[in-house]
Specification:
heterodimer; A: 328 residues; alpha+beta; Enolase-like, domain 1; 5-stranded antiparallel beta sheet; globular; B: 213 residues; DNA polymerase, domain 1; 2 domains; 5-stranded mixed beta sheet; 33% helix; 13% strand
Chain lengths: 328, 213
Amino acid sequence: MEPFSYFRPPDLQQALALAAVPGSQFLAGGTNLIDLMKGGIERPQRLIDLAELPLSGIEVLPTGGLRIGALVRNSDAANHALIRDRYPLLSRALLAGASPQLRNMATMGGNLLQRTRCGYFTDTAFAECNKRVPGSGCAARAGYNRMHAILGASDACIATSPSDMSVALCALDALVRIQGKHAQRDVAIGDFHRLPGRTPQTDTQLRPGEIILGIDLPPTFAAVPSCYLKVRDRSSYAFALVSVAVALRLEGVTVRDCRIALGGVAHKPWRPVAAEALLRGQALGATNIAAAALASTREAQPLRDNAFKVPLVQRALTRALQLAGGAA
Amino acid sequence: MTRRHFIVGSAVAAPLLGLPLAGASAEVAPRPAAAQMVETSLSINGRPYQLYLDSRVTLLDALREHAGLPGTKKGCDRGQCGACTVLLDGRRVNACLLLVAACAGHSVTTIEGLGTTSRLHPMQRAFLEHDGFQCGYCTPGQICSAVALIEELRHGTASVVTADLGSGARIAATPVELRERMSGNICRCGAYPFILAALQDVLGAAPVAPERG
């Protein structure tokens, strides 16, 4: 690990001021950042620990939605009574991630900023990684790409987002609240993470020096039928091969509205909007579910080692829709 | 003589005998400037500690190398194995991914703080009685994790295999629940069935006799 100066500002204003100096990075739970610093992938000269900032609350919004502070630990969010009762999809996704120890450390804001676990990114022995060293190439394209993206990838990068939480947030229409030095702004979760394009070094829309204040959950998909289904190589403590988050607003068996988000398949949580459109206004029956599952991967461009993800997504989505709809 | 005293003694003797010393060629880290030193006050096993260390030092290294508490083990050092599990304000965490500077003002409990050889913690006793280990390297982390697990169950904390997430629902400590909740602690010897038996013993559930392979 490279040497760094450690700061622990007492409030938001001082944190923002400290972050204005180049070479600064924020520290929250540290479960990803410290690991990347040990590997030489991240090399901040100044580490600004956000621990003193008052961003650890969970409160009900006047709209009936929920405001979750950026520093709430993943385990605390997953087990908060209001989240377990009204947004169990988020609880399930959080509890499907990492281990109890890591969930006790990891924060909501930090989880949003998790970096890919692409092995060519996390191992500096590989010279080629456009995400780590822009312009160096992508070793994963010609390498072992079983875990990589089948949707929305680019020539420059085929990495996937590792976060379970973000997939659930995407199906809940969450908003990310961001504080800059001069202004505050909200970004829809679907826009927060980027596709790699030609600049895969940038994971999100967060600008240098900005702080995530928290996440707002609108009431739209509160207390509705939902399902988070994660498929992985071992039954616990592993990243997703494929995951599916489904939230449904039903009237009888008719789908009034729905959200579907896919994890493990793209650089960001992937909304298969064509699949959602096929379900909207229709009965949640076998035929419509099958059509939606097929549509969810229509744009897929599998690589040498990950073609299995295409049918896996279709089957996982089928099962998630069945489970959310009340099938045993 | 304990194993640790033997190892430490050997390491001192090796250079005198001209023997190669494992770890002697460790990476030469850039020397930190004074601005990169941090003073940290924290409580470890109920005792106050004041440490003045390089900002890069993790809680794990602070415990082992600077606080004289080598019971917490370094496995992967990257948050993947759980050998370094300790309790931070009563909650289980991976000490390898925590900067000790970030622990200022907090309370840490390590395996040394749970019990002593003459007064074992019930979980330590259960691990002994059920053979919950083989080589023993992951055991301090397993025991700290298991102690926290029982506390979490007492508070109604859900896991991903909990069927009913409703906040008032009662959670049964089934083997499936216990295995999922211990999944952050890897045991390469494969003592899992006996670790599960130790947990069930402490929980007061009827222990399931694990099949010996």
